[in-house]
Amino acid sequence: MASNEKLAEKMEFPPDTPQPNIYPLSWVRKTQKMEEIWASSQREQWDPAKLSWDTFDPSRYSWEERESIAYWWTLLSVFDASAPPVFAQALIKTYEDHEEDPVRRCFFSVTRDEQNHEQMCGLAITRLLDHPDALTYAPKTDLGMKLQRNVRWLYYNGARYWEGYKKAVPKYNLSVLFSSFLMGEIAAATIFHQMAKGCEEIVFQEAFRLIGRDEGRHMAICMALMERDYPDLTDQDKDTITKQIRAGYLFLSAVLFEPPVEFWDLPEDFIPVQQQAEAVARAAGFGIPSRETKLENWRNAMLNLKGILDRYDTPFPAIPEVGISGKEILDVEMDEIIPVF
Ligand SMILES: [Fe+2]
Ligand SMILES: [Fe+2]
Fold first, then answer.
1. If you measure from the C-alpha of residue 78 to the centroid of ligand 1, how many angstroms do you get, rounded to a whole number?
2. Cβ atoms < 10 Å from Cβ of 29
3. Centre of ligand 1 from the C-alpha of residue 19, in Å
4. What is the pLDDT of residue 283?
5. Span from the CA of 12 to the centroid of ligand 1 (angstroms)
6. Which CATH number fits domain 61-336: 1.10.260, 1.20.1260, 3.50.50, 3.30.1360?
7. Residue 107 C-alpha to ligand 2 middle, in angstroms?
8. How far apart are CA 76 and CA 155, in angstroms?
9. In 52-100, which ranges are continuous DSSP H helix?
10. 59 alpha carbon to ligand 2 midpoint, in Å?
11. How far does residue 30's CA lie from ligand 1's centre (Å)?
């Protein structure tokens, strides 16, 4: 049919709109919990540019310290800078699926929050390095040179999943996506809580406290959606979720613990170099948790998630790295994971 053909001249009502179409013309409100979370996201909005930046003087640190702290923020950005497009894509899906109005709003709030977190990474890095990114920055110390090589490998690895994610979003229903999101949110809430406790800089304490509060809300959104949808999961959905949890563990371990070799393609000295930077940052009052504390926290976060999935009879994957037994998952592919933060 020619696109300029006027159907309205021939019929009283238009033909049915093919689905999925991008916009629901409706505002159904069923999940009360989501209304509450949305309201708190409105109350708790913050602006990274308005934190106490005037108390922060990077020149009181040595260049090695500045490069080491900036490295940690860059490592975080590998996850936080991909979060806005990842959640924007999920937000589009809530419109295509004609999700409830409060669900759409909650995903919108997550997208906005993650954009804030990404801005925060950028503000910290830019001040620390006196340059807007760690990739094109000219390192000033030997450690800085090695860290830049680490960053290049992190960037390469982190970039690999976007095509897979775009394919995964239409394939899975939202409840399957939530399980991966929840994994990221639990991980995020854990790390920011630790960092807020361990940092001496006021501006970093403020940021970590606010980011941690946002992540707690994101967790609550996932939980509310699981409560709504998980009672109706199919066995196939459950299988996918189990696999995604294992993939999420491998992906997020890079920031929560150490990047596992079976998933992350990194040079041999990557971890020792990172540990060196962490020691420098720690001594300068930037409280990155010790290896043992990270392992302990990551394990607790996983047990937390396992408790939630157990409630819905969804098998948990084996995570021998932190001493959790479960369903053996061997075939994790980079191109089919749904990793978020
Ligand atoms: Fe975040
Ligand atoms: Fe988040």
1. 11
2. 12
3. 32
4. 97
5. 49
6. 1.20.1260
7. 10
8. 11
9. 63-80, 83-96
10. 31
11. 27
The helix-helix angle for 291-311 and 174-198 (nearest 10°) equals: 150
The proportion of the chain whose per-residue pLDDT surpasses 90, expressed as a percent, equals 62
Q: Find the radius of gyration of the CA atoms of the chain.
A: 22
Please state, in angstroms and rounded to a whole number, the distance separating the CA atoms of residues 308 and 312: 7
- Distance from Cα 58 to the centre of ligand 2, integer Å: 28
Dist. CA 115 → ligand 1 center (Å): 8
Query: What ranges do the domains of the chain cover?
Result: 61-336
Q: How far apart are CA 101 and CA 34, in angstroms?
A: 9
Ligand nearest to the CA of 115: 1
Q: Using CA of residue 35, residue 39, residue 44, residue 47, what is the dihedral sign?
A: positive
**Preceding amide of 20 cis, omega within 30:** yes
Handedness of CA 221, 245, 169, 112 (dihedral sign): positive
The pTM is what?
Answer: 0.93
**Identity of the amino acid at 117:** H
- The per-residue pLDDT for range 200-250, each reduced to its tens digit, is 999 999 999 999 999 999 999 988 998 899 999 999 999 988 988 888 888
Tokens of 39: 């309201």
Distance 242 CA to ligand 1 centre (A): 23
Distance 5 CA to ligand 2 centre (A): 47
**Each residue's pLDDT tens digit, 314-338:** 999 999 988 888 888 776 665 666 6
Q: Which residue type occupies 97?
A: D
Residues bordering ligand 2, an ion, CB closer than 5 Å:
215, 218
Cα 154 to ligand 2 centre (Å): 20
The segments of the chain whose pLDDT lies below 70 read 1-3, 331-341
With CA atoms as reference, report the closest residue to 132 among 65, 52, 74, 202.
74
Distance CA 96, CA 174 (A): 11
